[in-house]
Amino acid sequence: MNSFLDSPPFIPSASARWINSLFFISLVLSLAAALLGILAKQWIREYMQWNSPLAAPRENVLVRQMRFEAWEAWNVAATISAVPALLEVAMILFLVGMIILLWTLDDVVAICVTAATAAFLLVVSAFTILPVLFHRCPYRSPTAW
Asked: In this protein, which residues make up the domain named DUF6535 (predicted)?
């Protein structure tokens, strides 16, 4: 009579769990990177506003030195350089989740997208590793080794 109560509980497949986990972690990392980028812009703006026309030159220099020392002590530069790394990890997680999803839907599309993604990730990996091998490599970045 009541078939709703008699139905077995829903159990998601392993691929569905992987896809959702990768997509949502990617989303969280992307949003975290966006927020950190906004915060970093605000930090930089405050850091640069040390030369007040209303204050004495000595006071301006003291404010600038205080901000510089705090910037170094709190390691703000490392925090700012982590933003691109967050976006890179988010993108990789998203691409892996997309590939898993495509393999559950259509093999031909999955093969094409997997090949394109692998080629793209190979190029990005090369740009990350090349500065280690060649000191004068122009592809140096904070996320490169």
From this structure: 5-104
In the structure encoding, which two tokens stand for residue 106, read together? 């259509």
Using one digit for the tens of pLDDT, what is the confidence trace for 20-36? Answer: 999 999 999 999 999 99
Give the integer Cα–Cα distance in Å for 130 and 140: 8
* pTM score, whole prediction: 0.79
23 Cβ neighbours under 8 A, 6+ residues apart: 93, 94, 97
| pLDDT tens-digit map of 1-20 | 566 677 888 899 999 999 99
